[in-house]
Specification:
The complex is a heterodimer. Chain A is mainly beta. Chain A is about 10% helix and about 45% strand. In chain A, strands 11, 12, 14, 15 and 16 form a five-stranded antiparallel β-sheet that branches. In chain A, strands 1, 4, 7 and 8 form a four-stranded mixed β-sheet that branches. Chain A starts with a helix and ends with a strand. Classes of the chains: A mainly beta, B alpha+beta.
Chain lengths: ~240, ~600
């Protein structure tokens, strides 16, 4: 009896091993999609943070209403995904601090590249900084590339981190929230003329920090438009 | 011989076959027929009981994600813990903002079947009786659609039972209706319910005033979505086509309907004022089954296996027999009642207390009946609340809470109650520990609905039987106050609020006030009643209040060398931050439904 059962198990195992020999005849995710997000004025990379913009991909090869997938932006304003299925996609940059843009329909095969030019809601201009003791002082003005229809401006915040990956998702909160400036007002000549000053006191000594300021408006996403990143060595 | 046998067989067969082709089409006896259900009172009541059982009442069990309306014991997964009413087991607002894919069209079909068939089979009943039952069905249908509309905005309105395979797929794959149409449909159903039902009903079932109460709630939602959703919204195809969002011009009409509906209840219900002690009165309001304030309740019992676990999961094991607590009122909620608590002297130093119960002295009775403060008593035990010990404390509270706290080296915290410092317990029996979260994280516990008369040994899991009050008169007054204020009827709004404040033992409202006063009164009166989440959403202020926000605790410390207590306003120990993305003003249409019915596209913006 035992022998028969053992024999049956051996047979079963052999059958299970041999039964799945058929090959999957669909291609794996062998396509890649990458590109840069560009500021419409400077043609430099759009100032954002990790995940500050999402590239929405809708694969139209199978359905007119696919479930979208998203590629988050890298902190330098580029994006890349190397594990996509080849196909026909509609790609749209969304979820960032810029005026909405129309999507582009394109085929993604091999490595496809597409840059997007974005118009930020606000720019941080004349950005300067100085260190007084352990207090970081950042001064800047705001400018709006498009003024009509600009949503209400919410606030400006400093972001400080110990690595160059710095933004709203990567900051030391004790340095950020207590030092923000609330604006809560529509765009006006006063705001355009004003020089803002943000102070971040009590930085730890003998450390190197990376800092920037961000401003956001009350749109659907409430993401930030950023300044350049500065390096601050606190003696 | 053979022939004879054949002939007799044929004859017998012919005789047997003769009657057999007569009545094959008889009803099976093992399946209950429509006429059995809809033609007998017991059948109708049983059918209605099924509907009431499925009604999406957000009771003790309800959670905004996961198991939704299903029954499990972990009541601390409370929607208030997603949005700053409580701090709890949720890691962030995102845990529950997308909902759990509630899609009760099966239940709506059950109601529609009832509405279609009761008049056919129920001819033996009086017209009043049939109308009363139909009114209940309209009430329940509105209840389901209200639960859908507040989550998804515009969804398909199904008025009649669909038939498959008689109807084609094209007919069955219905389109979404506009959000404004759904709210109007809810309003119409509740009007039908009001007109058909009598003024009184059995406990736990609807009558015309229950329908009016639900209408006041639904219409104040619709009005605020129209008014505030047209200012604060997420752009997208669903909005452009009216599936989410209501034109701002419709707001006043909805508020007027809310006010009118609330007014109907006047004189039929009243605020609970049985006891003269206002704190005790307010606590009992949630426990007294005979409360004059109750409009619609759901009952629980041990024998039906429906008993819940509120007592076992709202306070810690120090006071209970089983279970654990994990959700605690935030200091921000307390400050809605009190403003900043007087724990700091004029010179900035922390005020010294002889004992922790002094903190609660002179506070509003309603607050003390809603939240257990340090030093309060439950089942003969005191809430023994202590975060730690300072050997010595000098300087101001602000400095100690700043980035370079001067007294930090004198501070002792602990994870367990048995940890001692110089022979003294470092933390209290009810918190606040450095480990885990089954003791308070904020210095407070929920008191509302906690049955203080229940013996500790009876406070186990699935042992609590206090009723859930789904609608009570205070909410109707608040609906009316809000609608009145939005309609510029300031006097009426003030009268409603002062009725509530008088019962609460709070100072009456005089002078001018704003919509924020009205809203704050609602947040206080209805705290922990699972309204706060929906209120923040419909006022469209959730993205502002929950903007990477962290919540605070009131931390009691013992100062060893002075033998006094101080309180520090610190972040709650987990320092979780809560963020509400605007897209969550509407939940996404469930993916499975989108897969079955492509006409449900476009999905809500950014989902």
């Amino acid at each position: 009896m035992q022998k028969i059962i053992k024999g049956l198990f051996v047979l079963l195992t052999a059958m299970m091993v041999s039964s799945c020999t058929k090959e999957d005849n669909f291609d794996g995710p062998n396509a890649a999609f990458k590109g840069r997000l560009l500021d419409n004025d400077s043609k430099e990379n759009f100032l954002t943070e990790t995940g500050g913009v999402q590239i929405k991909l809708e694969e139209l090869s199978w359905s007119a209403t696919p479930t979208p997938q998203y590629i988050p932006s890298k902190s330098d304003g580029t994006f890349e995904d190397t594990k996509l299925f080849s196909g026909h996609y509609r790609v749209t940059p969304v979820n960032g601090a810029f005026w909405p843009v129309e999507g582009i329909e394109m085929d993604i095969n091999g490595t496809a590249t597409q840059d997007f030019t974005l118009t930020p809601y606000l720019r941080i201009t004349q950005f300067t900084h100085e260190l007084q003791g352990t207090t970081l002082i950042m001064r800047f003005k705001l400018s709006a590339p498009v003024e009509t229809g600009l949503p209400r401006i919410l606030d400006v915040k400093p972001f400080v981190n110990t690595s160059e990956y710095v933004g709203s998702g990567a900051t030391i909160s004790q340095y950020t929230d207590p030092n923000k400036i609330d604006i809560n007002s529509s765009w006006s000549a006063d705001i355009a003329a004003k020089t803002y000053e943000i102070q971040v006191p009590n930085l730890k000594t003998t450390r190197t920090f990376y800092a920037r300021v961000g401003v956001r408006v009350d749109d659907s996403f409430k993401q930030f438009n950023y300044s350049q990143i500065i390096e601050v060595k606190v003696p | 011989m053979k022939n004879k046998i054949y002939i007799s067989i044929i004859t017998i067969l012919a005789v047997l076959l003769q009657p057999s082709c007569k009545d094959l089409n008889i009803d099976p006896l093992n399946v209950i027929q429509d006429k059995d259900v809809f033609a007998t009172e017991a059948g109708v009541k049983g059918y209605l009981a099924t509907i009431y059982r499925a009604l999406p009442i957000e009771d003790f069990y309800y959670r905004q994600e996961g198991s939704g309306f299903n029954r499990q014991w972990e009541h601390f997964y409370h929607p208030g813990a997603l949005c700053g009413e409580l701090v709890g087991p949720y890691g962030s607002t995102y845990d529950g903002a997308g909902g759990f894919g509630y899609w009760p069209y099966g239940d709506i079909r059950t109601v529609n079947y009832f509405i279609g068939n009761l008049p056919v089979y129920g001819t033996g009943f009086s017209k009043e009786q049939v109308d009363a039952w139909l009114g209940e069905a309209y009430f329940c249908r509105a209840y389901f659609y209200f639960a859908l509309a507040k989550r998804y905005g515009g969804i398909p309105i199904i008025r009649k039972v669909q038939h498959y395979p008689e109807q084609s797929l094209e007919e069955l794959q219905v389109h979404r209706d506009k959000e404004v149409d759904v709210w109007n449909f809810i309003s119409d159903d509740l009007d039908s319910a009001y007109n058909k039902m009598p003024a009184a009903s059995e406990r736990g079932r609807a009558n015309r005033y229950v329908a009016a109460a639900l209408k006041s709630r639904a219409m104040v939602y619709a009005g605020s979505i129209a008014k505030y959703g047209s200012e604060n919204f997420v752009a997208g195809a669903a909005r452009d086509q009216g599936y989410v969002g209501i034109p701002a011009a419709a707001a006043a009409g909805f508020f007027q309907r809310a006010w009118d509906a609330a007014k109907l209840l006047e004189g039929h219900y009243s605020l609970y004022r049985k006891k003269t002690d206002k704190e005790l009165n307010y606590a009992d309001l949630f426990l007294d089954k005979e409360s004059t304030e109750n409009i619609l309740v759901r009952d629980y019992s041990l024998t039906t296996g429906t008993a819940h676990s509120w007592d076992a999961t709202m306070t810690c094991r120090f006071m209970t027999a089983d279970g654990l607590s994990r959700a605690y009122p935030t200091l921000e909620l307390v400050e809605r009642f009190t403003g900043l608590l007087p724990v700091v002297n004029a010179d900035g130093t922390p005020r010294r207390f002889d004992n922790t119960s002094q903190l609660a002295q002179g506070l509003e009775p309603r607050l003390l009946a809603t939240i257990y403060f340090p030093g309060a008593t439950l089942r003969g035990k005191q809430f023994d609340m202590q975060r730690g010990i300072y050997e010595h404390f000098a300087g101001t509270a602000a400095d100690e809470l700043g980035q370079n706290p001067p007294n930090r080296q004198f501070r002792h915290l602990a994870g367990k109650t048995e940890t001692l410092f110089n022979g003294m317990r470092i933390i209290g029996f009810t918190g606040i520990s450095t480990d885990g979260d089954d003791l308070s994280r904020t210095g407070f516990y929920i008191r509302k609905y906690v049955d203080y008369n229940r013996a500790q040994s009876q406070c186990g899991l699935y042992m609590s039987t206090q009723s859930w009050i789904d609608m009570r008169y205070a909410e109707v007054l608040l609906n009316r106050a809000e609608a009145a204020f939005e309609l510029n009827n300031i006097v009426d709004a003030r009268n409603m609020i002062n009725d509530i404040r008088d019962r609460a033992g709070a100072p009456l409202l005089t002078g001018t006030f704003t919509i924020d006063t009205v809203r704050n009164e609602r947040c206080k009166e209805l705290a922990f009643e699972k309204q706060y989440w929906w209120d923040l959403r419909r006022w469209r202020i959730a993205d502002r209040l929950l903007d990477n926000t962290k919540y605070h605790a009131m931390m009691p410390y013992y100062i060893a060398d002075e033998q006094k207590y101080i309180f520090l306003r610190e972040f709650e120990p987990f320092q979780r931050s809560y963020n509400f993305e605007k897209k969550y003003y509407y939940e996404p249409i469930p993916g499975g439904e989108l897969g079955k019915n492509p006409n449900l596209y476009p999905n809500n913006p950014n989902h």
